Amino acid sequence: MDTVRVTFLGTGSIADMTRRCASTAVTLPGGDVILVDTGAGQEAMFGMRQLGIDPCRVRAIVLTHQHLDHAGGLPFVVTGIRFMSLAPGASRGRIEICAPAPAVDGLRGMCETLYPGIFGPWCLGDRATWHACDPWQYLWGLDLMEDGTAARALDLAPTGPAVPRPGAIATIATMAVSHGAPPLPAQAVRIDVAMPDGSMRRITFSGDSGPNLELGRVGPEPDLLVHEASSVEALGHDVDATSTIGHATAATAARVATRAKARRLALHHLGSSWSNRPEAARDEAARHFAGEILVPSDLDTVEV
Questions:
Q1: pTM for the whole thing?
Q2: Is the dihedral of CA 180, 140, 138, 231 positive or negative?
Q3: How confident is the prediction for the chain on average, in pLDDT?
């Protein structure tokens, strides 16, 4: 495979019962997978199996924050990977779990409460490594290496082309963002992928975040910016109320995409009041962003 595949396992929120909750699988050229958020239940695992994405090839799980619709599926993912890896010939590689530092203990405790011993020696054991993304650092990063290991990223310069260390197939970088009322630890995510021809692909995820025109600093000129759009101003939604709870409108997402010089914009985490009106969000975004605008449905895949 000479492309990166971005599969939207879930595009909705906990308030929208017509869509799966937020989770995205980024499949690298060699078949390894980076999972950004896990949805609220079994939807991430079910979606991967339905689309032929091998959950045992998940190299990293990156959680943007601890809200139910983004992290509630984590116990299903880690236990599912464990049991599937028992099959003959299944991959039994390492899994890097990355989350905002203040959320790590709670998320790990949730998994261990719902499946006691999941990280013990008889289960996943040392195959799973937790990484606390420090919100006090401007950028935090991790290199996924060809040999199946991972190491803290050496160069996370926010400007210029990405230069992963030799032997790295992808670099994950995170940046703290504001979300929630009251605010809770949250992060945007950038994934730089080393392609077989020596080129790079960059995908940036806003996570849940209020207006943040500086988001482009974590990943300038992304090939794809996946940005939440919980409301649409053209449909009469209250912009101030949306921002107050740490969310964004379609217009805000488009302004961020323009500022970041994104090539394509995908509107994600769709609000329940407009999820059946994708054209309204696309038209609003088009007034602020000249590039291609996608409003993916659950289980859609985009090649980057």
A1: 0.95
A2: negative
A3: 90
